[in-house]
Amino acid sequence: MEALRHAGITATYCSKKDHDLLTVLKEPTELIVVAGGDGTIEEVLQVMPDREVPVALLPVGTANNIAGFLGIEGDPLKIPATWRDGHMAPLEIGAACGSWGRRLFVESVGLGALATATANADEADAKKEADPIKAGRKHLRKVLQKMEPKQMAVTIDGRALEDELLMLEVMNLGRMGPRLTFAPKADPGDGLLDVVYLTLDKRDAMLDWLKKPENGEDAPVTVERGRVVTLKWDGSDFRIGDYFPAVSDRVETVTVELEPERAKILMPPALETRKKAKSAKPKKKPKQKDDGKDRGETAALPDRLLQEIQQTANELARLAGSEIVAKLGGLLSVRYKGAGEETTWRDPVSEVDHNVEVLIRAKLAERFPDHDILGEELDERPGRDQDFVWAIDPIDGTANFINGFPLFSASIGVLHKGEPVVGALWCSTSHALRAGVYHARQGGRLHFEEQPLEVKLNPAIRRRLAGAPKTSAPHDLPWENRVTGSAAIECAFVAAGLLRVARFQLPNVWDVAGGLALVQAAGGEVRALEEGVWRPMERFEAVTGEAAKGSDLRNWRRPLILGESEAVALLCEAHTGG
Question: C-alpha distances in angstroms, 246 versus 46, 99, 171, 215, 240?
Answer without folding.
Answer: 20, 9, 21, 38, 12
